[in-house]
Amino acid sequence: MRVTGGMISDNLIEIIKRNTERMLETQNKIATGKKNRLPRDNPADVANAIAYKKALYELGIFEKNIDDASARLKFTDSTLASVTDILHRIRELGVQGANGIYTKEDRAKIAAEIDELLRELVDLANSKYKGKAIFAGNDTLEDPFKVFETYSKYAGERVIQKVEYLGDMGNQNRQIGEGAIISINAPGNEVFWAENSMLFSDVDASNYIVAKDSVVRINGVEIKFKAGDNIETIVNRINNAGVSVRASVNRRNGGIILETTSARDIWVEDIGGSTVMQELGVISGKNPPKNISPTARFFGGTVFDMVMHLRDSLYMDDIEDVGSRALAGIDLALDNVLKYRAELGSKANRLEIVKKRIIDNKTAFEEILSRTEDVDVAESITKLKTLEVAYQAALGVTARIIQHTLLDFLR
């Protein structure tokens, strides 16, 4: 093969060109701090980097949700701590009022103080976090508890007669991990309830048969009934639904009985055109809990009911009731509030553990992403110096080889 001067020249120029491109590429890496400027530079690394960034983005969202949930739970626990303190004070006053050394006038003064504490309890139950009621379920824009007052001849003034819950039973959830959800609230008709609730229907259901496939909702859980189900099947379906209510049949009149498994209200709805609960005499319409059938009997009291009971017993100078049923009701109220405070503590501990894991995972992904994306500056500078030396050498060689012109040969 004949090697001409032009071929040598072209080859040397190509070498210089490649060296120049490598130097520019290395300079760009040093300037940007990234290994790959375009996806085609290293498709595998770029794909991995995208996956790592997505994981970091999701972890960031989970961490933000955890911070929000932790702050919300801390505020709720602080509120319930104040509720607990007030209930302890009310109990102390009740014990004091049950003492026989006090006069009727003394007990009236104690009752008046309890009425003031009752108002403070309602204010706490209507507490808001960032403008939203924390004990209202999902209906957070309005106060969940409404006070009704009436004149008391024993107190000689208007006192709270009833405290009604206006919220719902909705849960507010936060996602704190892949498939991990935590509830950050507790509806007021659970937290501020004191007794297990019971609902007795007076309708004999011994021969009752469900006419068509139907769906009911009990305390937020949907339960399906099939056409042809009898009362025993209905009871079994309710008890196997995982709802916080147990069903049974009243052996005296054949009516259905619903009882909560813990201190909370009972909410029952017929949905999707169902009329099962109405036919069983449990409810008479929509919008629980105000839809309980007028023929049904309901038992169960709130924290406020227990406090009003103690207050009224003191006003009426009923020492025996104060020292027995009234104080027992306050104990039930305290137990339920403390139970929810314990649940809040468990959730807070879980959030702390999950956040630590997320921080560790973020650190690991950031390190992997850095190794995938970021350039080793020291190594790149060394490489650039080597390329510059090679470039200068190539320039020198090229200059010596192709320095002769036509005039040199004409001399």
Based on helices, strands and strand pairing, what is the structural class? alpha+beta
User: Helix segment count?
Assistant: 10
Gyration radius, in Å: 38 Å
CATH structural fold name of the largest domain: f41 fragment of flagellin, N-terminal domain
Per CATH, the class of the largest domain reads Mainly Alpha
H/E element sequence = HHHEEEEEEHEEEHEEEHEHHHH
Share in helix: 40-55%
Q: Which overall shape is indicated by the principal axes computed on the Cα atoms?
A: elongated
Q: Please state roughly what percent of the residues sit in beta strands, choosing from under 5%, 5-15%, 15-25%, 25-35%, 35-45% or over 45%.
A: 15-25%
CATH architecture of the largest domain: Up-down Bundle
Distance between the termini: 30 Å
* Average pLDDT reading: 89
- Uncertain segments of ≥5 residues (pLDDT<50)? none
What is the total tally of β strands?
13
| Spatial strand order of the main sheet | 10-11-7-13
CATH superfamily of the largest domain: f41 fragment of flagellin, N-terminal domain
Number of domains: 3
Largest sheet, described in full? 4 strands, antiparallel
In short:
The chain contains 10 helices and 13 strands.
Features:
single chain; 411 residues; alpha+beta; f41 fragment of flagellin, N-terminal domain; Alpha-Beta Plaits; 3 domains; three-stranded antiparallel β-sheet; 10 helices
Would you kindly provide a written description of the structure presented here, covering whatever features stand out?
There is one protein chain. Strand 8 (214-218) and strand 9 (221-225) form a beta hairpin. The chain is elongated and about 120 Å long. The longest helix has 55 residues, at 43-97. The protein contains ten helices and 13 strands. Helix 1 runs antiparallel to helix 9 (377-401). 54% of the residues lie in helices and 16% in strands. The chain folds into three domains: 1-32 and 390-411; 52-190 and 301-361, f41 fragment of flagellin, N-terminal domain; 196-299, 2-Layer Sandwich (Alpha-Beta Plaits). The protein has a four-stranded antiparallel sheet with strand order 10-11-7-13. A three-stranded antiparallel sheet has the order 9-8-12. With 411 residues, it is α+β, with helices and mostly antiparallel strands.
